[in-house]
Amino acid sequence: MPRKLPRTKYAASTKNTCRVLRHGRMKTRDTIDGQSRIVQTQFTCEIRYLRQIHGMFRIFATTLFLGVLPLMAADLKVAVLNPLLVDLARQVGGDKVEVVDLIGPNGDPHHFEPKPEDLKKAEGASLYLVAGMGLEGYLPKLKTIIGDKATVVEVGASLPALEGACDHEGHDHGHHSHETDPHWWHSIQLYGRATNVVSDAFSAASSQHAAEFKKNAEIYRGKLDLLEKWTRREISKIPREKRHLATAHAAFNYFCKDFGFEAHPVQGLNREQMPDSKQLAELIHELNKEKVAAIFPEKESNPKILQTLTKDTGIRLADPLIADGTGVTSYEEMVRHNVTAIVKGLSE
Q1: What does each C-alpha distance from 25 to 35, 55, 172 come to in angstroms?
Q2: How many CA atoms lie within 13 A of 281 on its CB side?
Q3: What's the pLDDT tens digit per position in 4-25?
Q4: pTM of the entire predicted model
Q5: Positive or negative, the Cα torsion across 344, 286, 317, 265?
Q6: Which of 89, 262, 70 is nearest to 165 (CA)?
Q7: Angle between helices 210-235 and 83-93 (to 10 degrees)
Q8: Is the Cβ–Cβ distance between 324 and 109 less than 8 Å?
Q9: What is the pLDDT of residues 175-198, one digit of tens each?
Q10: Which residues contact residue 54 at a Cβ distance below 8 angstroms, ignoring those fewer than 6 apart?
Q11: In sequence order, which ranges of 11-115 are alpha helices (DSSP H)?
Q12: CA angle 247, 81, 124 (to 5 degrees)
């Protein structure tokens, strides 16, 4: 009577050398009265069982992932209409906020007006972030379109503002108000205060994550403090008598105030405010009198009038500055670019 093989995991004796075929079956090289059939059948069943377990596990894992995915999605949707505020919203919101960039990296906040397709991307947003201080001329219209479906947060509304240059002569300045300068983000200190504004707005809209928003804001303000210290160290390389900043338009008044420069803008607060012949003559006289070392164009704008100025004054054209956050991915990138260009232009 043939000897039965022990029913182990492989159901094969030590004398039976085994090999596995591509389709997962195992056969013995030397067979003892049909025992190889038992071996083959047992092993095939085990392979099929393992495959069934593996398939069930994959189904379970997929179901679990799809079930958890909605829980991982951001709780708060925010639409942003300023390139620098896109960065700020992401810094404060982290993974708890979905930031919808309506203006894009190359949009001009002075002239941008959201189109219907832009507003469609923002559907479901609880907040709309804008710079405020009168920068966005379309804001009343936007508020009408949004209605009570979302809240428009004018980030700069509560920040201390500077006034633009006065275009009127021979009057009492107390009898009228001047145009507000909306370029508050060129003050690193004010940008730090704006971080608190955004954190408070996010916390009001999504209170369950308020502690995280506050923590993110604190971390980011720490980075801004380091950025300001770096800026002051770099500017210290420029002799005080050379700290005159001639720019394409009046976008850098906050920067000049914080870091001890005298501003000499060619255009007004927006790029449509061109100087007349009398104002241009006065500007040329001023630049020559102060021995201004360089005139800084902008990446967003390089009007022909700057070429005229450099020709009439002999002042060289320096590297372009970034006024409104166009073409950069972060606020820090813009500041470092501008400071580096200014130090280079006024130190040579």
Answers
A1: 15, 19, 100
A2: 3
A3: 545 544 444 444 444 443 444 4
A4: 0.75
A5: positive
A6: 262
A7: 130
A8: yes
A9: 434 589 999 999 999 999 999 999
A10: none
A11: 35-72, 83-93
A12: 175
